[in-house]
Amino acid sequence: MDSGFPRKSGDAGIFLYLALDNFDTMWYPSVMKRLPSNWRSRIEIIEHEPGEFILQFKKGFTPRGFLRYIGRFIVEYKHMEEAYLRSHFRGRGLGIMVYEHILHHYGELSTHYHRASPDAQRVWDSMSLRYPYKADFFTGVLTVMIPAKKMSQSHLTIQHDGVYLNHGNKAT
User: How far apart are the first and last CA of the chain?
Assistant: First the structure.
């Protein structure tokens, strides 16, 4: 059975997932190989469209036997609407990494906690331990925030009056 994905890593494989209903069943038999030890340094998070973040291997760094695409996360108005991570990559800390990236991008992030999967709830529990949060019991919404001081330091390079500042304080 052909899955419709190109067998080599490339940009075309990233966007074909939109047409597939059950993406996890589209693994090739060779995917069950072990990941190389440096696989975490080979991944990147890109914002494909406003509010749509894609987790993928960097171009040219996809391990042999794997597809480039790893996961997709959709955020609307600072609210996590959809989060998908391939089953082979779950439980490896990637969810927390992506959620933190999105949190630093928007400054706050919320979800309907009870509608989330058990794996996603674990990620939200970890996020609530690391960052200040507020929970609305009646609507079931959990919002994780970055304090204002950390938000200004989270931007690596900020241009202010022609001077580049690193971490919001030090001039370079």
Answer: 56
pTM score, whole prediction = 0.68
Q: Which residues pair with 76 in a beta bridge?
A: 79
Q: In what order do the strands lie in the sheet with 163-166?
A: 157-160, 163-166, 170-171
pLDDT per residue as tens digits for the range 17-31 = 333 334 443 444 444
CA angle 86, 1, 19 (to 5 degrees): 50
- What residue segments make up the domains of the chain, in order of their start? 12-171
CATH number for the domain whose boundaries are 12-171? 3.40.630
Confidence band of 149 (pLDDT split at 50, 70, 90): low
Number of neighbouring beta carbons within 10 Å of residue 3: 15
